[in-house]
Design goal:
four-stranded antiparallel β-sheet; 256 residues; 8 helices; alpha+beta; homodimer; DNA-binding
Chain lengths: 256, 256
DNA sequence: GGTAACCTATGTCGTGCGACATAGCGGCCA
DNA sequence: TGGCCGCTATGTCGCACGACATAGGTTACC
């Protein structure tokens, strides 16, 4: 678990990545694109953008000119209550499309913040109409990605509504582990964990203290191991039993 | 609050409603359609279907041949845990598109059940490609509706994660009240309430007993009145204060 | 090199909510 | 007409979790 500033130092990086050389697209989680689609997306993406850890990518209520897909790094979506309590709605990893609710509705109803340095492909919203009118397959992909977002929110709802603290934490760990593994970000059974315990608490609707104690219990029982900015899954079987984890993200998905 | 079998007896009804005569479309919540779109939707809709209260509309895992929009009646989406605990993910009202995750992903990851007798317009999924390829505006509308679903899930997440029992119930009541009002289903400040307290509990991640007690407290304090299958909002101001309710569903939305 | 900010850790205590029990009421069906 | 089922209601008790307090370790910044 993150202990403090480090963050995968992929900072500087070169200029812009051409979509045909996209390091994500080659991964087997993503469905292959036709050349026609690929060159459209290349036109669709106008610029690349870097956001440092801890900075806001899009603020609540903002009508961003862009939607983004994450090229590298972690981010999270959240909403705040007037008294500063915060609910983390979801974690966004490379390949995830974020900010879609902004252009399509009237401004984004949540904020998005970078957990690590984040590299983004930016798509201007005014080019969306062109996508719809010339690339029906990509339109379908947008619907697909929006549906996936809702499905992840649904699973999260099930956790918050009906699972105990231990179950929630076990579930979250497996969830992140499998998403990382699919993206090739895990080495063995250990995966990067840039979230602090405060983030975990805010994602799972728990207090920080209780999160800490529950997490420690999982460690003591040797179900997981917590490193500096990483977690190792020691007993996946038992974690599944505890949490009722349900693998659902198995299919290949579109990458825009 | 619903006490038992009654259910708005709009049962029998005639045959099929032609989209151009759709009783929903004329309501000001829905954005107007061009004739071209309208006649496409008329072709898209192949059949109408009635489901009685308490029956399942689509079951978890099912790959339904259709997606539906609700013409009349109430339904709810839910997920179950192996031990029979249930989490209600959301309430679907007339004009809502349901079952979209089924065709687009690989089978629906939640179930949908009718709360009252429900009348559905059914769209076969194999005609979706035609929608994408000939009606970009409708493709955009699908994205819009999917984003709205995610936004509602996000608000629900905030409730479950960070609000107290009282706040959750106050929020839910205002939420349903405003959605009903927008659809012209409320008379004055009273709106139909087909959910039982068990449904409310399962939606808000509470126990049935605690839901009952909390609800009673709102009634005792004269913030609401509970009738047989209806709720009257007595003090919206105070309910807003309690819950931190945030009106977000103000804009006109597409109806497919 | 002192101090502040951030994160993790652990103890004690209090409480919001869940679990269990019981009751009443109305509808349904044999 | 009697019994069962679904829903609401309310009391008692216990527990999982939150609130508060304290501490130590690490990084950043004067």
């Amino acid at each position: 678990m993150k202990r403090r500033s480090e963050g995968q130092k992929r900072g500087a990086a070169a200029g812009t990545v051409h979509c045909r050389n996209c390091p994500l697209r080659v991964k087997p989680v993503f469905r292959p694109f036709e050349g026609r689609e690929l060159s459209f997306v290349e036109w669709f993406k106008t610029v690349e953008k870097t956001v440092e850890a801890g900075r806001t990518i899009i603020a609540e209520g903002e009508k961003s000119r862009f939607i983004f897909t994450i090229l590298s790094g972690w981010a999270f979506r959240y909403k705040s209550l007037p008294d500063d309590r915060r609910q983390i709605l979801g974690i966004a990893l490379p390949g995830d499309l974020i900010g879609m609710q902004g252009p399509v509705m009237d401004g984004l109803q949540h904020s998005i913040e970078a957990l690590t340095p984040v590299r983004l492909c930016a798509f201007p919203r005014e080019r969306l109409w062109k996508l719809y009118s010339t690339h029906p397959a990509l339109a379908h992909d947008l619907v697909w990605l929006a549906s996936r977002g809702e499905r992840m929110a649904d699973e999260h709802l099930l956790s918050l509504g009906r699972r105990s603290a231990t179950q929630r934490i076990a579930y979250l760990i497996l969830h992140l582990y499998h998403r990382c593994a699919a993206l090739d970000l895990a080495t063995g059974t250990t995966f990067p964990m840039p979230l602090t315990q405060a983030h975990v608490a805010d994602a799972l609707g728990l207090s920080l203290v209780h999160t800490n104690k529950t997490l420690r219990r999982l460690v003591r029982h040797r179900l997981i191991e917590v490193g500096d900015s990483s977690i190792t899954v020691l007993d996946e079987e038992k974690l599944r039993d505890i949490s009722g984890y349900d693998e659902t993200d198995g299919v290949r998905r579109p990458l825009i």
